[in-house]
Amino acid sequence: MTSHNHANPNQSAKQRHHVVIQTIAIVLVTVACATFGKTAWATLSFVKPQDAFHQIGSHKTSVVSSDVSEKSKSRAPEPSTIALFGSGLIGMIIRFVRKSYATVKRGFDVVASIIGLILLSPLCLFAALLILIASPGPIFFKQTRVGKDGKNFEIFKFRTMKVDAEKATGPVWAKINDNRLIPCGAFLRKAHIDEIPQFINVLRGEMSIVGPRPERPVFVEQFKQVISDYERRIAVKPGITGLAQVWHKYDESIEDVKKKIKYDLLYIRKICLWTDITILLRTIRVVFTGEGAR
């Protein structure tokens, strides 16, 4: 017996249908791979200066090359573009952190000043009575100092010197065994009690708790002439306490000022909340030991 095999028309149609689908799929995958490969290569390519600009001559200006007008527009971002975007993003983050730091620091300054004035009010009353008993004249002392960006302001302190102490000498630095001090002045300075009213300057936004100490305008003008980068220290708000105050002594000479400037600039470079906290902790020790007082 002989047998005859006849192909099923339905099966043949299904096979042709599958072949067509497979062919279309292969074409789509090939196109996708080619497109991805081109994009990836463009991403990894370096920007060539001649693709964007060409020099006509030293007397002519550079112009954008017309050869890359349409071709370069379809390219993926070049590494230099990505780098610029990344640096811009990093710059935004840094500005955000600095702005956040400034906001947090201002909030801390206000809260700490209010709490400080409340907690230290008995000590303020005690200091006021000492001054009234020791020397006739006002309890508080105001003096012009240079603040942030060179703006002058009036700093508040408990008076530790005689009235018109500099009338005969003019502005001079504080020194050991200063004969201009009132009887209780040395104690108030050694305990840093005379600085407490500066919390008012902090509340007014003229000072911060931590920062370079504000200097008198007459000294600022002198120091600017002989100390390079001196003006950089007024880029931030002055403070009640600072890095120079907790690690250096009072100024007695221009060399002391030069050393203090190094501390101030170091603080500005390392400025952050942790730096402020470290200085505050060190300040507690200075207050109780009387280090650096005049």
Number of helices: 10
What's the gyration radius in Å? 36 Å
- Report the average pLDDT across residues: 76
Shape: elongated
Instruction: Profile the largest sheet.
Output: 2 strands, antiparallel
Portion in beta strands: 5-15%
SSE string:
HHEEHHEEHHEHEHHH
Question: How is this structure best described in words?
Answer:
- With 294 residues, this protein is mostly helical.
- It has a domain at 107-289.
- It contains ten helices and six strands; from the N terminus they run H-H-E-E-H-H-E-E-H-H-E-H-E-H-H-H.
- The protein has helices at residues 9-44, 49-52, 79-119, 121-134, 185-190, 198-203, 217-226, 243-247, 254-269, 273-289, and strands spanning 53-54, 63-64, 140-146, 152-158, 208-210, 239-241.
